[in-house]
Each structure stands twice: as structure tokens, then as C-alpha cells.
Amino acid sequence: MATMSTQAVATDLRGKTAVVTGGAGGIGQALGRRFGRAGMNVVLADVLAEPLKEATRTLADEGIEVAGVVTDVTDYASVEALANAALDRFGAVHVVCNNAGTGAVSEGYMWEHDLADWRWGIDVNVLGVIHGIKAFVPILLGQGEGHVVNTCSGNGGFAPIARGAMGGPATAVYPMTKAAVLCLTESLYTHLQMTGTRVRAHVLFPGGFLNTGIWESWRHRPDRYAAAQQRRAPETTLAAVVARFEAAGARVEFSPLDTIADQVMDGLAADSFWMMGPPTPADQVVAGKAASILARGAPDYLVDVLGQDAESTSDEGGTR
Ligand SMILES: NC(=O)c1ccc[n+]([C@@H]2O[C@H](COP(=O)([O-])OP(=O)(O)OC[C@H]3O[C@@H](n4cnc5c(N)ncnc54)[C@H](O)[C@@H]3O)[C@@H](O)[C@H]2O)c1
């Protein structure tokens, strides 16, 4: 839904350029489409060449000025090459979405997690964002304007969902990486402010149950992060997650990705650090965590996370 503020920024950003990592599908492609419809030039970047080509073609068919650049965010040279490609094609970059991510699922208790799972999750979800900041922020500063939008998650950004809906341990990798994304973005916000620039940092919390590739990231696991340990159970699929929720009596309804893209447009217009949907009961975790810290108490809010969010967790993956 386009709001007044969305319209305002659409005018502002018309003719400007957005770069979106993880743009071959899911939230990234929805962001690219939303930016393109607002009259922006779009650079979609992804490690998956074929889906990227398809996503780029789809947006181009809508009349969007779009380029696809195969990029591996775990490799700094590749992200630098992305920045250069964007500048070569469109002359400037105004909005950078560090959105590429991997499900970072791991089996068992965290001391049992495969080190390859940790490395893959950290390299994509954390180092990938650091690479984006290092390659693009100097360009934005040189222009004197621009926005960095880092994709976080309530799972980690608020608190980890440490126990899955079925009562078993959920991955510790994913929430750890997303907690890092929030922390990085807070530092970025402050450092930018210290320079007096108009460049801004924002953190995106996609909400709802989303039908994206993140649940099945394992399908595209690079060889260099090949699992070192034998898996005990088959990899999770989105269909299996949905089936588990339904078996537990939960109604599964996917939220439209356009809503997330609108959140970003509205957040840019309003210059919001926190790019979030309307308040939900899950927000209470934040209050519980703050209370626990201030009282030097036990982290009981983690139990609350499970209670409130059980519908959207899986044993392995937790909420994305
Ligand atoms: N889907 C959700 O419920 C949800 C919730 C909160 C946050 N997020 C976050 O949103 C972001 C987008 O995820 P999504 O849900 O659209 O999933 P997705 O799997 O559809 O999209 C992620 C994209 O990142 C790409 N990618 C993975 N490794 C990469 C690498 N090394 N270099 C470049 N690209 C790479 C993938 O190929 C994929 O196209 C992620 O950061 C994810 O953690 C998702």
C-alpha cells in the first residue's frame, strides 16, 4: 500500500539508483521492484546467476531500468566490483540494501552445530553486510547523500529464538548473525552522524511469515562451506515447516513481500532508523529484555519469545 510518505520519497528518489544484494528473489527482488516502480534505477546483485538473470528480466519487462550483477557478498573484491558496475551503469548510488542472507540453519544444540554452518552464516549474513558498508559508504559520503538499509530479523535483532516450535533447539547461527547486523547498523548510524553527513543508516525487520527462499538456503550451499558433520535429519523445506505448523494447529498465512518493500520506502521517506511494521505482541520481547537487563535478572523474556512466537518458529530454523 503506497502511503503519502511513500509518494513523497518516490518523487525524491526518482531517477536515483538503488543496489540490492540478494536481489534474485524474495525480499530483495520485491525491494528492487518497489524501487523501480518509484522511478529509480535498480541494480540487483546475487550469487545465483540464473535466478538473477530471471529476476532482472522480470523487472526489465515492467519497464524498470535494471541491471543484474553476479556478486558474492562473502568476497570483498566481488562487492567492490558491484559498486563499480553500479557506478559505471548509472553514475551514482543512492540506496544500498545489504539484504543477501542465508538461513544459517544448524542441527542440535549449539555446541553440536557444524563449524561449516557457523562460517557460512557469518560470512554471508555478517561479513556480507560489512563488505557492503566498506564498499559503498565512501561513495555515498562522496555524494553527500544516500541510505544504507541492512536487513535484520526479530530473531536475533530482538532476541534469539533458541527453542523451536516443537520444543527442540533452534539454530543459534542465524539469530547470532542478525544480532550482529543490528549492532553493525547502530555503529554505522552513529559514525555517519559524527561526520555530519546526510547519509543515513537504517535497519529492516521483515515481519510475518514470508514465502521466500531463505527456508531452503541449503539448496545453494557453496562447496567451500560443505557440511563437515553428518546430518541426522533431512534438510528442512518450507513445505515441511508449513506442515509442522499446521499439525500443531497453527494457521499459516504468508505476508505479501510488497508490504516489506513499502516499509522500506516509508522508512526512507520518514528517515526512520527502524524499518518495521506496526507493533506486534512479539515487540514485548524488547521490553522484557530491557527489564531483565535493568533488574540484572534471568533472561525470562526468552521463554516469552517462544510463547508468543511459537507459530512462526521451526525446530531448526526459528523465525527468520
Ligand atoms: N524470509 C523471512 O521470513 C525473513 C525474515 C527476517 C529477515 N529476513 C532476511 O531477509 C533477507 C532476504 O531473505 P529472503 O527471505 O528474501 O530469502 P531468499 O533466500 O529468497 O533471498 C536471499 C538471497 O540472498 C542470496 N545470497 C545468498 N548468499 C549470497 C552471497 N554469498 N552473495 C550474494 N547473494 C547471496 C540468495 O541467493 C538469495 O537470492 C535475508 O537477509 C534474511 O535473513 C528474512
From TrEMBL:
Residue stretches in coiled coil:
none
| UniProt-listed SUPFAM superfamilies | NAD(P)-binding Rossmann-fold domains (SSF51735)
Q: Which Pfam families does its entry note?
A: adh_short
Which InterPro entries does this one have? NAD(P)-bd_dom_sf, SDR_fam
* This protein's UniProt keywords: Oxidoreductase
> Which family is this protein grouped under?
Belongs to the short-chain dehydrogenases/reductases (SDR) family.
Q: PANTHER family, per this entry?
A: 5-KETO-D-GLUCONATE 5-REDUCTASE, ALCOHOL DEHYDROGENASE, PUTATIVE (AFU_ORTHOLOGUE AFUA_3G03445)-RELATED
Q: Tell me what this protein is called.
A: SDR family NAD(P)-dependent oxidoreductase
Q: What is the lineage of its organism?
A: Bacteria, Bacillati, Actinomycetota, Actinomycetes, Mycobacteriales
